[in-house]
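Ticket opened by: R.M.
Priority: normal
Category: complex prediction / small molecule

The reporter submitted a protein together with iron/sulfur cluster and asked that the result be attached to this ticket for the collaborator who will pick it up next week. Submitted input follows.
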Amino acid sequence: MEQLTMFDESKSELRNFMESEKYRKGVFKTKDELIQELSAQGKKHIYRVLSFGGGTQSSHLLEQHFKGLIHYDYIIFSDTGAEPEFIHQQVEWWRQRQKEYGNTTPFITTHHKSMERGLEEMLMRYIYTDYQRFQLPIYCNEIDKDGNEVKGGLMPRQCTVDFKIIPVKQTARRLVMESKGLKSTQRMPKDTSFIIDIGFSYDEIKRINVCQSPQFKYMYLSYPLVEENLTTNDSIQFLRENNMPDKRSRCYLCPFNCDKQGISWDEIIEEESLSFIKACWIDEQLRKVQSTGTKMMKSIPYLHYKRIPLKEAYNEKYAKLYLKHQNELTEWIIEWEQRLAEKYGVEFEVETNEIA
Ligand code: SF4
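Result attached by the on-call engineer:
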């Protein structure tokens, strides 16, 4: 039964990743093709890494690893600093499962190199300091010639690369350098390369843009679920049929919390209402800081896809939950103020007692 649900060909028989434009144009290659090419180039050590996100697709791959179907030398989870607690619980569930299997592959948690607190830290820096980089795919409105606010674009989704993929690559590099007795400042030996598995599914082929890492030329990315012609729903179904945790990974403040396909603001509101209140606060502060004219971003930012304040999108729920969590929210802001003062020398202009 388990094997059937893992490789149920009836679900994928109409799909063939080899016919996709991305594959035909060489945007990505299969893992076997990569291994053959790298071996032909004299790479004697090809390290296999799973970029684990704690959600559905990379968990599907992790289970395949525990079953002995995919080899990994390292399993690396990059904590974006904004995952809901239920995703951390899922990561813990998979750590326990690894123990039950007696699997000993190093399973490491990592994070952004300079902003250890991840996306929350990036956003707090953006709100409280002159930090200008904004890596979230936020919805933007513009002001037209008549002074009306009109629909604009979407900021590029740079956070996945900066807070998930690059930390995984940096950590894999560090681990291998250490295992070879080399310092991080030294060059990677010429006979060494890496293949990092990313849990994109067949329905996400459009997200595939690279095969070779732009940061580390000896690193390559592969997409095993695409090669298996499996969709996101196939992975969710597999996990459900096997009584495994099935919540989709993302940040609690992700603008792609879009009320469909298992990723929704409702889930954050129901499962983790304090995080929802934090997201509402961040959403509001982003527009406040944008209105000061000190940011390079000239558009008006919204976390919610309707391009309205997040708290207005869920007005009634917000009102109740704000009352419930206002003290915790204030404590969280004060903690951040202390951290920002210590790390970035921030002097505060925002009064915490003004939030509402
Ligand atoms: S889940 Fe959303 S906010 Fe978090 S890294 Fe991915 S795109 Fe960015």
